[in-house]
Structure formats: structure tokens, C-alpha cells
Specification:
It is elongated and about 60 Å long. The chain contains no helices and six strands. By secondary structure, it is mainly beta. The two termini are about 20 Å apart.
Length: about 100
């Protein structure tokens, strides 16, 4: 997740959260458990450098990645068909105006 904007333009990257990091009790190996919304971070314009905070537009962008094991059904140890890790990514974001 990232927050960007300001004048001069700046960006703040927030740490990646994996389902196995156990940062909240609501995220498990199969996704969100319980309520449909889980707070990941408190995002604050003041996370940007002070000289960048101005009366202008900002953006919060969230990247997601679905990790998946892909491959063929096989019988070990005689079957050497490939298995690989893959997945799909997506992002979404929103913009907002901020006046200090």
C-alpha cells in the first residue's frame, strides 16, 4: 500500500502484509475471517515528509497479490511434470483533496 502526493510530490510505502504475518486476527490462509473489512494501516497525510504536505490532491493505492500453486497432478517420485508458483495481482486506489 502506498500514499502519494504533495508539493513537492512524495510517496510513502507501507510494509507488505501477508496472511501468514498474523498482524490481525481476521486474516487467515483463505482470506478474511469474520467481518468483510479488515483495517490494515492507519493512513495519514502526515506520514509524508513535512515539506511535501500542501493544499493539493493525494492518492492511496492498495496492491493485492493472489499466490497460487499451479501445475499438473502427478505421482511422486516417478512423475517429473512441472509445478510452479504463480498468481494474479491487482490494484485499486482513490484520490482525495487535503488542506493542512
Amino acid at each position: 500500500m502506498e500514499l502519494s502526493g504533495g508539493d513537492p510530490w512524495a510517496i510513502k510505502y507501507y510494509d507488505q502484509i501477508n496472511h501468514y504475518d498474523n498482524l490481525t486476527d481476521n486474516v487467515g490462509s483463505e482470506g478474511t475471517i469474520g467481518p468483510g473489512m479488515v483495517d490494515l494501516y492507519d493512513v495519514d497525510v502526515n506520514d509524508l515528509p513535512a515539506e511535501s504536505i500542501d493544499d493539493c490532491a493525494y492518492e492511496v493505492e492498495l496492491w493485492t497479490w493472489d499466490r497460487t500453486i499451479r501445475g499438473y497432478d502427478f505421482d511422486e517420485p516417478n512423475d517429473d511434470r512441472p509445478i510452479w508458483f504463480g498468481g494474479w495481482s491487482n490494484k485499486t486506489g482513490f484520490t482525495f483533496d487535503y488542506t493542512p
